[in-house]
Amino acid sequence: MAEAIPIEDMIRLEDMTGEAQHAATRSRAYAALVWAFDYPDAEFVATVRSGALAEALRATLGAVDPALAAGEWSPLEDAGATDDDLAVEYTRLFDVGTGGPPCPLYGGLYGGARMQNMEECVRFYNHFGLTLAEAPRELPDHISTQLEFLHFLAFREAEAWRDGRDPGPWQRAGRDFLERHPGRWVPKLRERLAQQNPLPFFAALVDRLERFLAHQRGQRPL
Length: 222
Hints:
Number of domains: 2
Order of helices and strands: HHHHHHHHHH
Number of strands: 0
Number of helices: 10
Shape: globular
Largest sheet: none
Radius of gyration: 17 Å
């Protein structure tokens, strides 16, 4: 997605306080989840095995609410028996299958009317001056695209709080987009995933994502 947030700016937000800091921590959490849903190439697998990915998620989610860091994190350090296990499983669950993958990462495939779903996402993005990058994965309803947008909105909210401007437009857009898009379909993704006997890594990742989104919607985590 265009207008990526430079990592230096994310670090600079650590100096914020109060509501600005809270929005900044949510922005970081969304960014970490975008990273966690990358295709598991060799570098990604090494990050999983080192524990760095699990620690990044634990730290960023826990900064939003310590309850989100509770529980067992070892599945997110389990890359399988070989270096290819995560990639093979990612493809099986999310990329291929007769009539489509069993657990697509595209929200428009949950509930029908995909074109309308994608068009609504694009309207959200365009309203804030964002366009999609030329990448095969970056369709408007992909989980990574949607999480990146929520990261962007939380980041701009943090800046508004810091600068004494009205954060309302960013807050309202975040709540509305979350409710209409990933907050609606990620629980369905988790239900489908549970039927596929996935590797523990992916089961734990989707579970953590669903808990975080439920928290952001003001619901009690499952």
